[in-house]
Amino acid sequence: GAVVSQHPSRVICKSGTSVKIECRSLDFQATTMFWYRQFPKQSLMLMATSNEGSKATYEQGVEKDKFLINHASLTLSTLTVTSAHPEDSSFYICSVGVSRGYTFGSGTRLTVV
Amino acid sequence: QKEVEQDPGPLSVPEGAIVSLNCTYSNSAFQYFMWYRQYSRKGPELLMYTYSSGNKEDGRFTAQVDKSSKYISLFIRDSQPSDSATYLCAMSQKNSGGSNYKLTFGKGTLLTVNP
């Protein structure tokens, strides 16, 4: 499977600021990457599908203006949480893969204070 | 009814026990079935992947799919303390655009294997 690197692993930011999370596919040209959010003791919920060179596809209920996704190359997708609020505090995870055996990044723990 | 149901546990077993983890699903469109292991504060790691009814074995792990009953299981033999983690079932189907496969996860079962 693919090797996925996600950075940073932890970030604490002030309410109202923006935070950028990077997801890199190290050995796989990923035309598509996926962004998930996981709240404590909850499952992973798909937020959006990141498409290289085109707009991301957001799941119902996810604000596209708040969670900005950029997939400028086949190896890098970024998720920017804009004007973060405490309720955005969560574990954000990216993944790559096709049809099966998705590989996940190590996740980013975001805490908004 | 949620698309994927998984008992969150927690499940505590002694070392060496056989562990059985289960998920049920309601969406007949699911084509691929996976089990992931997630350690605390880490991303999920793929353990098993199957696409047809029946059993698939890999070392101490056996994945079982029963499409007629919409039921999947993961069995862990000779469980070890290092197996202590959250186990997530996941299922995929093509998304509405038809170009990608969308994963739907169960809530995860927290397993503790005691030495």
Can you describe this structure?
- The complex is a heterodimer of chains A (113) and B (115).
- Chain A is mainly β and 113 residues long.
- Chain A has strands spanning 4-7, 10-13, 19-25, 32-38, 44-51, 57-58, 67-73, 76-81, 90-98, 100-104, 108-112.
- In chain A, 0% of the residues lie in helices and 57% in strands.
- In chain A, the strands form 2 sheets. In chain A, strands 2, 4, 5, 6, 9, 10 and 11 form a 7-stranded mixed sheet that branches.
- In chain A, a hairpin with a 5-residue loop joins strand 5 and strand 6 (57-58).
- Chain A is globular and about 35 Å long.
- The N and C termini of chain A lie far apart (36 Å).
- The mean pLDDT of chain A is 91.
- Chain B has 115 residues and is mainly β.
- Helix content of chain B is 0%, strand content 57%.
- Chain B contains no helices and 11 strands.
- Chain B has strands at residues 4-6, 11-14, 19-25, 32-38, 45-50, 54-58, 61-66, 71-76, 85-94, 101-105, 109-114.
- Chain B is globular, with a radius of gyration of 14 Å.
- The model of chain B has no long low-confidence stretch (mean pLDDT 91).
Brief digest:
The complex is a heterodimer of chains A (113) and B (115). By secondary structure, chain A is an all-beta fold.
Radius of gyration of chain B: 14 Å
| Discrete helix count of chain B | 0
Largest sheet of chain B: 6 strands, mixed
- The protein's oligomeric status is heterodimer
Q: Give average pLDDT of chain A, whole number.
A: 91
Instruction: Point out poorly predicted stretches of chain B.
Output: none
Give the helix proportion of chain B (percent range).
under 10%
Low-confidence spans of chain A: none
Task: Report the C-alpha radius of gyration of chain A, rounded.
Answer: 13 Å
| Strand content range of chain B | over 45%
Secondary-structure element order of chain A, N to C: EEEEEEEEEEE
Shape of chain B: globular
Class per helix and strand makeup of chain A: mainly beta
Structural class of chain B: mainly beta
